[in-house]
Amino acid sequence: MKKILYILIFSLLFVSSVGSADNPEQISSVKLTGLSVDNSQGFNHLRFLIKGRKPGNFEPILDVKKAAQKSLEYFFIGLIMHDEAFWVNLNPDEPDRIIESSLGNTDLGRIMLNADFRLKEDISSIINPQISQIGKEFWKRLYQKAEELNATDKIPVVTRLWIVPANTLVYEKNNQFSIVESTLEVHLEPAYYAQGIQMKDKRQQELQDFAAGLIQELVLPQLNKRVNEAYAYADLREVYNALVLAQ
Predict the structure, then answer these.
(1) Are 74 and 6 in contact (CB under 8 A)?
(2) Alpha-carbon gap, residue 114 to 83, rounded angstroms
(3) pTM, two decimal places
């Protein structure tokens, strides 16, 4: 029944406009930013506003029509699937709880998994002292704390990161909805809280908490900037806007 509904509604769609900063043909990603009901011709049409991102260096050029169709696909997935389905979990300790099965059969689910994997790659590169100034500062301060606690034999850094909705503002007037603001945020939780790990050595727990504080201070601002601005997460932002309008 849901598939039939999907096809019937999709046949009534009308995309009102697709635009980018300069040339509508030169975009590297898109996202839905508005939705309205148009009955000026005697029929109710759903009209969508889809905006494109101007390509940066080495960013590929998308086919506008195909990109717009994918955004609409994510919108309708947001309509027909339960809210509880939109999660992914790349935790090696939970191999049987990676993605909700119905979401796993969609490109939307693939995008969410890719974003979660990319997040893990990004934090690894940011705290790598061989390639990152932030990484050098992170490990310098962490080792200093370990020396203060006389706990340099074992330095734990056990954390969990996930991306969640942050600020979202939608303007509504005369059957028209416009997304004014939509941002995402990276949250941090020391993994031993979630996994019930008991650290017998109180110095280790104090050091782990200190490491979590360093990540909060030094790393999360960098991750949040990437998630909300970098091309690598453009697909995730596209999905997020589609789900906001579906709500």
Answers:
(1) no
(2) 20
(3) 0.83
